[in-house]
Predict the structure.
Amino acid sequence: MKNKTMKIWGYKLARKNKSVKPVRKKRKKTAERHLILPGKILPYAAVTALSAGLVIFFGMMARNYFTMSDTFSVKRVTVNKPSAQGFYDVESELEDRYMGRNIFSVIPSQVEMLLREDHSHLQMVRVRRVFPDTIDVDLVPRESFACLDTAGGVVVDREGMILSVGEIPEGIVRVKGASFFPSRPRPGNMVTEKHVKDALALIDDIFKKTFLGREDLGVVDVSDRNNISVTVRGVPVNMGSDAFARKIVTLGEIFGDPRINPDGIQYIDLRFRDPVYSYKRN
C-alpha cells in the first residue's frame, strides 16, 4: 500500500510538473537560438561596409562625370523668336553668360527671371535644357499697341507696359494728351494714369467688338479727363468717360451704315442717349 501510495504520489507529481519542465527547456532553446556569436557578425558587417563603399565610390565617379565632363558643357544656345529684329542683344547675352558652363548648373527658372528683369519688352520667356549640351529659349515679345504723344513718343502694349521711349512708329494708334510729369517714362514701367488706361482699353474693345481696324482709327485724345475723343475715319467721336460698351456698339452701327457718309460729318457725340451729329457746312 505504501508503494502504491508512493507511485500514486509520484504519478501526481509528475503530472503536476509535466507542463513546467518542457516550458523551461523551450525557453532555454529559444534564447540559445537568438544568440549570435561574434564570428557570425563579422562577415555581414564586412559585406555591408563594402557595399556602402562601392555605392559611395561609384556615386562620386558619376557626380564628377556629370559635373566636370566636357560632354555636358553648354555648346549651343538656341533662341526661337518670331523675327530677328530686337533679339540680337538677348542672344549675345545668353551666349556670353552660359557657353561653356555645365548644363546642370543652368537653372531654367533663374534664366527666365533674369531675362524678364533685363528685357521688359518680352511678354513670354521659356527656357529648356536639351541634354547633353544645348539650352533652348523661346521668346515672345510684347506687341506695340499704341504710341503716347509725349516725351518724343512712348510706345506701350495693350496692358500699358512701356516698351520704348523716343520714337513714333507708324501703323499704331496715337494717344494725345498723356503726361508723365514730374516723372519720366522708362521702358518696363506701367502706365498708371487712369484716363490713359481707359483709352487703351477702349481702343482694344473697338478692335475686338467692331469691324473697325487700326487703319480706321486716328488720334485718340485724352486731354479732357471727362471725355475721350476717338477719331474714326477722320471723324472725331466724343465717347465721354463711362458706359463704353454701349457706345462701342453704337459706333459700329454708325460706321457700318452705308447711308451715312463720314466725309460730310464734322463730329459725332455719343455722350447722350441718342447720337448727336454735327455736319459740315457747305
Observations:
- The first strand starts at residue 76 and ends at 80.
- The chain has a mean pLDDT of 82.
- The chain is about 40% helix and 20% strand.
- The CA atoms of residues 73 and 102 lie 4 Å apart.
